[in-house]
UniProtKB/TrEMBL annotation:
EC identifiers of the protein: 3.6.4.13
Helicase C-terminal domain residues: 262-437
Record bears the keyword NADP: no
Organism: Nelumbo nucifera
Organism classification: Eukaryota, Viridiplantae, Streptophyta, Embryophyta, Tracheophyta
Any GO molecular function: helicase activity
PROSITE patterns referenced in this protein's UniProt entry, alphabetically: DEAH_ATP_HELICASE (PS00690), HELICASE_ATP_BIND_1 (PS51192), HELICASE_CTER (PS51194)
Keywords attached to this entry: ATP-binding, Helicase, Hydrolase, Nucleotide-binding
Xref: Pfam families: DEAD (PF00270), HA2_C (PF21010), Helicase_C (PF00271), OB_NTP_bind (PF07717)
Helicase ATP-binding domain segment(s): 57-222
Domain of life: Eukaryota
Catalytic activity: ATP + H2O = ADP + phosphate + H(+)
A GO term from the CC aspect: catalytic step 2 spliceosome
Name by which UniProt lists this protein: RNA helicase
Length: 696
DNA sequence: GAGCACTGC
């Protein structure tokens, strides 16, 4: 192995003593010396671990914003809320809020804190995620929630007045909700000087977070000159974690085929390194299946490779197969998990000692000009590479093999990666800000500004849906109602139109189904059987009405998992559909939509769909071969996806829910329409020309 | 006749 691999030159992280150790550094000179440690300025000083609590409480007391940086395992997430609670930050009916970007993390952290405090989950310590509110308004003092839920709470309480401290965890991940939330929190801070923010982030983002929250500190003195308000310059506290050291190895020479390189690296680790599981990061299902097959063949052909358990891991994998990665490795064997990015942040695997990092992942990019989102294989960032490597050091010191050179890591890889804000469609983001009364989206104080093109495109789409008016303000009632519905605005618009057309009962079912990945079981081997199963539900109107038949069948079966199995339908997906539908029903009730069924009238159904998705209208190119369509607006070449029930049926006019772009643009979830409905639904968008609709 | 990184409300 030594011929190909070169150890990294980055010095191992300092974990200096068995105490753990806290390093404190303040971004500004301190006037107080009461604690004996706060005199250090822009200079690192290690403090004994018992002062962790003191340091945090002091900083939160004196600074409006505290930025906590550090590694996993440093106890930031679980200890800080407890310190704050003990220090009285949740007295007098105030609540300490702690956000996470993922539902699972919220649940896990909340139950751990409840356990550590010796209280019942849902009382002093509670959590709120979509579909689940385990809090008690009378007793909850520490509340964990997803950042998306906190954003939703702002719709009713824009200043988040019930919270005394808000801690935002994993801020370095820079998810869309986190970025929006941080921008809004900074605004709130100006109106609520008593509010305390704690931003928890990876070390690499500390500086940008700190300068973002840095505000001019003019009015800090009260009339008599005493300090009334906290310091407005953020403090930075750095906490070392207890993770084990991970030795980094780079390739001596670059390789062109990372898949092959990954396979041979796994085999040489198995031959030459002591026992311990291996985690391999590849990009997607295709890569992973190919690698699993190559390794399995190798195990069959070569006896020295026995004792290997090879497991794929990606989100589309059926639940039972996903769970295999969590089963303990039998003694004398070695587990090899070949995974997408799901293992980078979403899942934590125990027992990993070796990581093989391809240096690539699939990433979504949005082109505001064509209004199309693309999924492409792209190089990861240095931050991502560090995160992947860290997965090897959870149980004991580990090793990470990077399938690229150190020069590439240092010179070619970007340090951070592009925030989601800058590579996604912004319609939902814009409508959320509009609902909070923020009208100047481009002028908003962003952590990372979205491109003007993307903002303009989002405004345009919302305007065409009559969600925004000529002044780019929310229309009443449509715009305000759409903002209440926690779905894609085009779907929300479809629901509102269904109310007028008398088919809301059916349309909220369709909406629930459209907002999950797929209701079909993904099976590679038995494609034919799946297609046959689909035909049992398929109708000429298209995929949307077909979904209604599936839902009806599921209800008639008594929500049976057996029935799902027989019909190649994903049972877990259907349960989720029921859950989302129930939430939509509640929201509909709240905004005054009466549920009404159209009793099988599919024309009004398709008119409601058209009212939301008129912009996605296409017509068949009559003289072209192979079912080529062109979008009415923009004349883009598109095709019906083979998974659609309208594949090869090729109706003359269709609208689609979304595009998948590979070598071609494929329309997913397609419904046949009458072109006259387009002008009826959106006279501001389409006009007649020689009997057919044409986009303005 | 082909393909879906990952979250979230």
């Amino acid at each position: 192995m030594s011929q190909f691999w070169k150890p990294g030159s980055e010095r191992p992280r300092l974990i200096d003593d068995e105490e753990g150790g806290v390093i404190f550094y303040s971004s500004s000179p301190s006037t107080s010396s009461g604690f004996g440690y706060a005199t250090i300025e822009k200079q690192r000083q290690r403090l004994p671990v018992y002062k962790y609590r003191t340091a945090i409480l002091y900083l939160v007391e004196t600074h409006a914003t505290t930025i906590i940086v550090g590694e996993t395992g440093s106890g930031k997430t679980t200890q800080i809320p407890q310190y704050l609670n003990e220090a009285g930050w949740a007295e007098g009916g105030r609540i300490i809020a702690c956000t996470q970007p993922r539902r699972l993390a919220v649940q896990a952290v909340a139950s751990r804190v409840a356990e550590e405090m010796g209280v019942k989950l849902g009382e002093e310590v509670g959590y709120t995620i979509r579909f689940e509110d385990l809090t008690n308004p009378d007793t909850t003092k520490v509340k964990f929630l997803t950042d998306g839920v906190l954003l939703r709470e702002m719709m009713d309480d824009p200043l988040l007045t019930k919270y005394s401290v808000i801690m935002v965890d994993e801020a370095h991940e820079r998810s869309l909700s986190t970025d929006i939330l941080l921008g809004l929190l900074k605004k709130i801070q100006r109106r609520r000087p008593e509010l305390r923010l704690i931003i928890s982030s990876a070390t690499i983002e500390a500086k940008s977070m700190s300068s973002f929250f840095q505000t001019s500190s003019k009015k800090r003195k009260g009339q008599t000159g005493e300090d009334l308000e906290p310091r407005t310059d953020p403090a930075i506290l750095s906490v070392e974690g207890r993770g084990f050291n991970v030795q980094i190895h780079y390739l001596e020479e670059p390789v062109s085929d990372y898949l092959q390189a990954a396979v041979s690296t796994v085999l040489s680790i198995h031959d030459q390194e002591p026992m311990g599981d291996i985690l391999v990061f590849l990009t997607g299902q295709d890569d992973i299946d190919a690698a699993v097959q190559l390794l399995t063949e190798e195990v069959h052909n070569n006896r020295k490779h026995s004792g290997l358990i090879i497991l794929p891991l990606y989100s589309g994998l059926p639940r039972a197969e996903q769970d295999l990665v969590f089963s303990p490795t039998p003694r004398g064997q070695r587990k090899i998990i070949i995974s997408t990015n799901i293992a980078e942040t979403s899942l934590t695997l125990e027992g990993i000692v070796y990581v093989v990092d391809s240096g690539f992942s699939k990433q979504r990019f949005y082109n505001p000009i064509s209004n199309i989102e693309n999924l492409v294989v792209a190089p990861i960032s240095q931050a991502s590479a560090r995160q992947r490597a860290g997965r090897a050091g959870r149980v004991r010191p580990g090793k990470c093999y990077r399938l690229y050179t150190e020069e590439y890591f240092v010179k070619e890889m970007s340090t951070q990666g592009i925030p989601e804000m800058q590579r996604t469609n912004l319609v939902s983001c814009v409508i959320q800000l509009k609902a909070l009364g923020i009208d100047n989206i481009l002028g908003f104080d962003w952590l990372a500004s979205p491109s003007p093109e993307a903002v303009i495109r989002a405004l345009e789409v919302l305007y065409s849906l009559r969600i925004l008016d000529d002044d780019a303000k929310l229309t009443s009632p449509t715009g305000f109602q759409v903002a209440e519905i926690s779905l894609d605005p085009m779907i929300s618009k479809m629901i509102l139109s269904a109310n007028l057309l008398g088919c809301s009962e059916e349309i909220i079912t369709i909406s629930a189904i459209l907002s999950i990945q797929s209701i079909w079981v993904s099976v590679r081997g038995s494609q034919k059987e799946l297609d046959e199963a689909k035909l049992r539900f398929a109708v000429a109107e298209g995929d949307h009405v077909t979904y209604l038949n599936v839902y009806k069948g599921f209800l008639e079966s008594g929500k049976s998992s057996q029935w799902c199995y027989k019909n190649f339908i994903n049972y877990h997906a259907m349960k989720k559909v029921i859950e989302i539908r129930e939430q939509l029903r509640r929201i509909a009730q709240r905004i005054g939509i009466a549920l009404k069924s159209c009793e099988g009238n599919t024309e009004v159904l398709r008119k409601a769909i058209t009212a939301g998705f008129f912009a996605n209208a296409c017509h068949l190119e009559t003289f072209s071969k192979g079912g080529m369509y062109k979008t009415v607006r923009g004349s883009q070449e598109v095709y019906i996806h083979p998974s659609s029930v309208l594949f090869r049926v090729n109706p003359k006019w269709v609208i689609f829910h979304s595009l998948v772009s590979t070598d071609r643009q494929y329309m997913r979830n397609v419904t046949a329409i009458d072109p006259s409905w387009l002008i009826e639904a959106a006279p501001h968008f389409y006009e007649h020309q020689r009997g057919n609709p044409v986009a303005y």
